[in-house]
Design a protein that fits this description.
Order of helices and strands: EEHHEEEHEEEHEEHHHHHHHE
Helix content: 40-55%
Oligomer: single chain
Strand content: 15-25%
Shape: extended
Largest sheet: 5 strands, antiparallel
Number of helices: 11
Number of strands: 11
Distance between the termini: 66 Å
Radius of gyration: 35 Å
Structural class: alpha+beta
Length: about 425
Amino acid sequence: MSPDVNSLQVVVDQPRSWSRRLTITVPAPRVQQVRRQVTEQLLRNVRLPGFRKGKLPTHLIEQRFGPSIEQETLDRVIQEAYKEALQAQSLSPITQGQVQNVQHQRGEDLTFEVEFEVQPEVELNRVSGFTARRPSAAIGDEEVDSVLERLRDDHARLVPLPEGATPDFGDQVLVKIQPLDPDGAPKEGEEERSYRFFLGEGQAIAPVEEAIRTLTPGGEGTFTVQFPDDFPDEAQRGQEQYLRVRLESAEKKELPELNDEFATTVGDFASLEALRERIRADLEQDAQSRATAEVRGQLLDQIIEANAFEVPDSMLARYLSLMTGHAHDDGHRHTPEEEERISQLQAMLRPQALSTLKRMLVVDRLAEREGLRATQDEIDARVEELARKHERSVSELWLQLEKSGQLEALERELTEDKVFEFLQSQNTVA
């Protein structure tokens, strides 16, 4: 049987593990067939003075619209041939193909190249024989005490400072600040402003807090302050400024006593001991989760080191955009300064993003290879468990999870749990 004269010739190159370059040759008869279709469509729709619609001579169409016909022909042939070549080679691009090196002469074959990225090939030849160290999840009394102190601070009462006292770190102050010229007059264009904040929490620069701590409520003073070299406003870094500071009021935190009565104000706890037990249980649960995450990270990192693979540039770029909140800018044009800040932030986050993506790809590959993806029955069971825990109907919770997109996250969580159960059975966790 003779080969089909309209069959494409496709050569596949692999410049990198996650990219493909197709060199596609389209036979001349196929190109001419598309060209005739384009010309006939033009004949049916074009009107010129002196000719009825659809009755234009072909040579006149070629004379008037030749370049347009040629371009439309190339566009159609390339689009159709590219789609057909992808299907023939069972390739699924994750980026738009970049067409280049188009070569064509009238009456001859058309040749072009198209390059694109594909899902990276993750070959996991070794996933066992590794050792992970599980960190301790023990919780000491001092950690429970620390949480209790934070709760006391959250439930503190603010009371005015004793007469004649100056505020200290941890006190809430209300101040009015007026920038001054060197001669002591209010600085032009700078209004007096009021600020309320807690001293020592970094809401004001250190020299301003030091000035405030010299005042008693109702008092004021003129101070020279120097802005630190890491101040957010670059124009003010290292600059001196004259300020008039007036302390309107100052309040100190009065912490509640740590007793059974305090426990009842925090939540539904019968005693302080019951509150301590709940805090310890929550801390232990958090510690267990962190320890599990640490073990999983160790195993994945060892697997990645033993089975090297690359991550496509486009995949990394998209993930960095998500991390920095610039995945959907709705056409917003950034200033050069904004572009520079985004670039610096993404460069800083690049190692973390690369590590996260590699871990995700390993989990996905193992789930596929070992048949560990969450089943519908497992997803249903988890939704029912969550519904019981939160005292809600299963159907109501299911609809909420589906509408919010959390159902997919739940499925991935179940899949990851199964993958890590498999990995722990193949490796040592000490």
